[in-house]
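hey m, so remember when u said the tokens were messed up on ur end? i reran from scratch. heres the input so u can diff it against urs
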Amino acid sequence: MKHIKELIHKRWFATALGGCITVAFYLLISNIVDIWQGFTQILGYFSTVMGGCALAYMMNPLAKLYERTLFRRIRKEAPKWTVSIVLALTTVILFLVLIMSILIPQLIDSISMFIGNLDSYAKSLQSFIRSFLPEDHESPSFQNFVLSSENIINTIVDYIMENSSKIINFSTNAGKSVVNWVIAFILSIYLLGAKNRLKAGLKRLLRASLSKKHYKSTASFLSHCNDILNRYVIFDLIDGLIVGTVNAVFMAALGMQYAGLVSVVVGITNLVPTFGPMVGAIIGGFILLMVKPFHALLFVIFTIILQTVDGYIIKPKLFGGTLGVSGLWILIVIIACGRIYGIVGILLAIPIAAITDYIYREMLLPALERRNRSALEDQEDEAVPEDKGQKAPESASGETIQEE
């Protein structure tokens, strides 16, 4: 320790330290891609655990709701929490089964209808292209272009044969993802059961590693972040459910086909901020376009109206002032998080923006203002003794010389 202090006071130490920092920063910037790939690969090893934590965090509010309402008369905390977890898991599973029972039959029906109507689609496409060509124009390239559904099917079969290895790899990865999410779901059950013990361990660790003042500020910050995430998850799910239900009522009232399939797609894509509703409108419009183009037009118009009402009335009422972040800042965070973390980053963009805004407004700005006030007070304290202690010059006889 003594030798380190001696080195710090050497004249060359600051220059050497600055040079080392510069070299390290240059190596970091020049190899940022490899470093990021290594970091994401390490995170990939824990993706199942992270997924389990996310599922447990999303199911926790539902379990707490059951604990506060249905099982509030149970005195013992452990049995009450266990029963709440079981009921929350049962609710989620039943909801997923209901969604699948709506989606799968209508999805199979939609694909069957698309294949059955390939001939009419090919003829419509052919007539549409002919309308832009001269009447006597029949080039060989046009004659070979989508003349019947057989051409389309042959093209699809050829594509599948040429890219069979890619399709097999995609299917394998999809199967692995399903297995990982099943494991994550099982892990979330254990995490929910051990929630109180994990919270107690984290509090003990923070108390042991931080001072009393820093512990209170850290606990307050984590509590606020937890409140933002909880409000976002709960009200975003409620908002998606409202939008999907309203869309289903509209489609059922007009007798549109695939009301369940399209409404589920609209509700799920509505969870993704900014770009999700546009994706839902495109998918739903395409599904209805295969059945009846006029219904597709009505659906797109209604989706625009519904999203306007959702953006200016429903979401402000649900989220309130907790997530009161400017739209520009949210858009910037969505773009940045989307480029870094993909769809997960887009989903978490709004709470990340809200937490960042909270750190800036409630922590960073007050700290800078306190430091600025402290610096001004120090300057005033240094200036006051100089004014009070300054004496008028005296003459050689000891008399004070009065300044004019």
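this time it looks ok to me. The chain has 17 helices and no strands. if urs says something different then somethings off w ur setup not the seq
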